[in-house]
């Protein structure tokens, strides 16, 4: 897990002072200062411009000029004839509903669409600093309940849709959001346990964190999909999605615990002493004084952990759960469309990118607020 | 040491008289450990019951049985008739093959991109930033599938791309010229390694003597003798052959040369590009952590820019860089397990096949965990040792 301090762009301080005195218009001056400041710099600029121009031209040729945007039915002959020369975007209007919602009943797909919007609204609301209050917990509970109702149905006149028909973007968002929603409190408890003075509790927490972080996530998912049923008593059969969800909660808990531990270490000793002097209990001391400060210290790395976690949910492809990446991969099994997987991966990559990029921008803004200089 | 008896007794009394807080702590620990033990015992008894119902034996005896699993890309002689144990070893070697080469390449490329991001050339720094943002914000598995699809979309062997003489890129993978490795060649490689170690020791001694009397001593004659002369002598003495075999297209396939299978190549590209984006950010933040005054002072001395970077800035930046870099190396190693998605048989993929063939889930997963915990521990130990070596010595 990386916690990269992303300071505003600050070029190395060997920009020549001469650049300020160079004559010419603003554009010329800017060019000379930023692209042609020295011989080496000029050579690099020229090479890069040539390379970029070439890449840009071939990209536009492939993605726009030579591209095919729609074909009748499954007649992909036209697409095949331009393979390698142009993109076949026709695959997207054909497959986008499957990619986004999987095998969810076609006529009911407004429900998962609404679920995605609910998630986005929930993320938006949670990102407002002025909204970080106790009521937010209630908002979360309500939103998650609404999501459950919409996905499952069965009440309020909605037809019941069983879990094995869920797929696509809602599954990715569910895995990520529930994983974090339950992994976060778990992480807090484990982080506190790791800093506890009680040796048995401390070693249990260390064991948990190190075991989970020491192995690849895939092995945890394999464990959830094959070993979990072995560990359950007879007759208890937990759904595959739920098993993966449990694995994700355990995984998120271990990584978040380490980030939060970093925050706990940054809270000055005096805060503990002051709380003890007031005679606060362990839980009051941590809940009211230590944790709020600790978490505030580590918000940017927390958001970075969220991003990593969001991307990692795509690994459920390996155990056959229909998340966004799996639906994308499945949508091009169809022989007619098989050669056009690059187009589909670009589309799905864009969706992941939008979510992750939004989060990373957000983390950068928070950091700028925390360290105004 | 002599301790009087009354004092000893008093100490013992102290030990057994707990205050209220200690009792609460003790109770908490008993409760938490008790719950943990109860959960583990419950799961364990269920597992034993389920295993006996499904007639799956426990234990590692299956490792001696015939694996019957084909492995396409191996460095070690292997046939499907070999036992599971050998298949696992092949898998571990395959994992290390990706991880070690991946770590080296990701470090080199990531460092270059990180430095490029700080360049005063606007275009270069912007491009590096785009590279970082794009690769960081797309799941690795998606990138891996993307590269794999691209590899499969390459022309067939007969119409392979030939960027340089002797290098072919086709849907059979990347084919490079190679030197056939005989025993004599291995000895020469060993001689180079021995020469490098000797040079390192010598350099330290020369530096120490330079520190003592201030006289500058030349290193390059020794370097030449140890790293070039000595291996050349060994090569000559043993009669090692260094003729390069160029791969050739014969019929439908390539003959000679070194083949990087498409699965391996796709996995390597994906891991290297993805990790290098994170490495670039670490390098950048490390360089930025070096105070500006260091640059100014070096500039004032009229030192060359590359010299300043190498001798003044990077050594200081390394202290900031090493700890997060360690976790990136660990991530890359763990991420190499995604090999299973494209059918490259690393240790996880082989364990997964074993698990499906024998049903011995617990043992297979335990093996995966053991392998990765060992590798992780190895990387951490090495990096911590390195970190301690370069850490700031406060006097």
From TrEMBL, chain A:
Domain ABC transmembrane type-1: 169-363
PROSITE patterns named in the record: ABC_TM1 (PS50928)
Pfam families hit by this protein: BPD_transp_1
Topology versus the membrane: Multi-pass membrane protein
UniProt cross-references to CDD domains, sorted A to Z: TM_PBP2
Cellular localization per UniProt: Cell inner membrane; Cell membrane
Keywords for the protein's UniProt record, in alphabetical order: Cell membrane, Membrane, Transmembrane, Transmembrane helix, Transport
Transmembrane regions listed in the UniProt entry: 35-57, 109-125, 137-161, 173-193, 205-230, 242-260, 302-322, 342-360
Domain of life: Bacteria
Signal peptide segment: none
Entry similarity comment: Belongs to the binding-protein-dependent transport system permease family. HisMQ subfamily.
UniProt protein name: General L-amino acid transport system permease protein
The organism's taxonomic lineage, starting at the top: Bacteria, Pseudomonadati, Pseudomonadota, Alphaproteobacteria, Hyphomicrobiales
TrEMBL record, chain B:
Residue ranges annotated for the ABC transmembrane type-1 domain, each copy included: 92-383
Keyword Transmembrane found: yes
First-listed, main subcellular location of the protein, grouped into a coarse class: membrane
Topology relative to the membrane: Multi-pass membrane protein
Subcellular location: Cell inner membrane; Cell membrane
Xref: InterPro entries: AA_ABC_transptr_permease_3TM, ArtM/GltK/GlnP/TcyL/YhdX-like, MetI-like, MetI-like_sf
Transmembrane annotation, as ranges: 21-44, 88-116, 128-150, 184-202, 222-244, 264-283, 364-386
Keywords assigned: Amino-acid transport, Cell membrane, Membrane, Transmembrane, Transmembrane helix, Transport
CDD domains xref list: TM_PBP2
Family as reported in the entry's similarity comment: Belongs to the binding-protein-dependent transport system permease family. HisMQ subfamily.
Record's protein name: General L-amino acid transport system permease protein
